[in-house]
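User: Please predict the structure of the protein below. I'd like the answer in structure-token form so I can feed it into my own downstream comparison script.

Assistant: Understood. Taking the following sequence of 434 residues as input:
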Amino acid sequence: MHSPLLDDQLNIWHPYTNISKDNPLFLVDSASGGELTLSNGKKLIDGMSSWWAVIHGYNHPDLNQAAKSQIDKVSHVMFGSLTHEPAIKLAQNLLNLTSTNNQQDFDRVFFSDSGSVSVEVAIKMAIQYWFAQGHPEKSKLLTIRNGYHGDTFAAMSVTDPDNGMHSMFKGILAEQYFAEIPVYGSDIEWKDEYIHSIKTQIEKHHTTIAAVILEPLVQGAGGMKFYHPEYLRQIRQLCDEHNLLLIFDEIATGFGRTGSLFAYQAAQTIPDILCLGKALTGGYMTLAATLANKKVVSGIHADSKGGKAGGVLMHGPTFMANPLACAVANQSLELLKENQWQTQVKAIKHQMLTELSALSSNKLVEEVRVKGAIGVVEMKESVDFNWIVPRFVELGVWIRPFDKLIYIMPPYIIKPEQLSKLTQAIHQVISEMS
């Protein structure tokens, strides 16, 4: 009998896999709400939101209708010298959402087609800003270790060169500056010493640094580490003192995941450039955005020292501001408001704290931590990926750990009984590991 999975194994290269080894692989037939249905009819409670993007659940009728309505008008049109209503509306929506005290935190929105590219654009903006100011020497980025900002080359360069997944490219990537990550945990008390490492780097290298780039409050794929909001406030002050730009990568944290609409708002710290993606379309299709404040926009536009770029931001993806994606994104932002995401995320947080906390005493567990709709069980040793993923499937859940981390970031619409099934499965597999 013909096997689609065999065709997949013969023809497709999946992310982060060695094709010479057997990798857990499951064929999805359909999905709805908080569930995936496999080709064999088995239903799985989704604990991953498809890499943190499907916040409203699968097959949502409102998002479906937004895509259907737009496809009959125009599915794609180049964004060079042409524009369209979905993009215009989405830009205004994003600028409104990122406003403080009725004042826009950002001035312009640049659309791209993936989170990695939004980071590439942010880095270009920062470097081009200083080039236009007559300081081409300010071309380096500073960040903290264990971060993750994407898989393209500029984004990889600000991902930990020693401990990150791209260490093999060290020596090929642009060399950036790295500070040690501050002490992290669910409920840590601020100490001034936490800022020492990055402060030292800024004081030493500020004449060649274009910008500091960080994932605010939560490091995502670099280890699901939560750190104190005061750290961001201190860095904003250091950037102002030493004339540096500040970039926040909110691709993973944006749109409510940490308990605030954007993590920078919870920290009361406004960056100069903001990267958004993942949940922007509710996980329906790929779309990202890079928002820049007036200082950055006018600085690039002025090109006061007669730079070669002539004030033009040097980037332009083919599928930039795709109308289908923009239409769905607008509807996703409406759903955030209608579904009362604050109440949803708060309930998920409380339930995960209640149901996962007992694991803290397990001898195999290093720490349990929860922030917003992010639940993390950090093990003392790396998990056996090829055993644990199929075991979770047997238990009727979709959880995909990495390294030492068993974590869940479920859709906001998940039902309490579905979330309990996820947490019970985590308890079960850890008890079997014991």
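That's the full token string. The chain has a mean pLDDT of 94.
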